Amino acid sequence: MVDSRNDESAGDCEERIAKFQQLAARLQHDINSPLTALLAEAQMLALDERLPEVHSADVEQIVELARRVAAVVRELDSLRGEVAPA
């Protein structure tokens, strides 16, 4: 009887891990799409010679923050394969 409980517990754990991995994959995809567009637009704006100098630092900060978010999203990818049953 104890073995069947352990089997159920292990099955529940594996199901939770699979759901977590699916969530990580969905979050990565859902964040990456708009983030890629945001980063590209900010980089293009930074290259625009018509951009007033007073806004250059702001645009560079947007680029840097978008890159930081991209790094976090990449970490989600690494988590998808590292989750192991306890």
Structure overview:
- The protein has 86 residues and is mainly α.
- The chain has one domain (2-82).
- The protein is built from 2 helices and no strands.
- It has helices at residues 2-47, 53-82.
- Helix 1 packs antiparallel against helix 2.
| Radius of gyration over all CA atoms, rounded | 21 Å
State the low-pLDDT regions, or none. none
Main β-sheet description: none
Structural class: mainly alpha
> Oligomer, anyone?
single chain
Overall average pLDDT: 86
Number of domains: 1
Q: In sequence order, what are the helices and strands, one letter per element?
A: HH
Q: Estimate percent helicity.
A: over 70%
- Can you tell me the overall shape? rod-shaped
Number of helices: 2
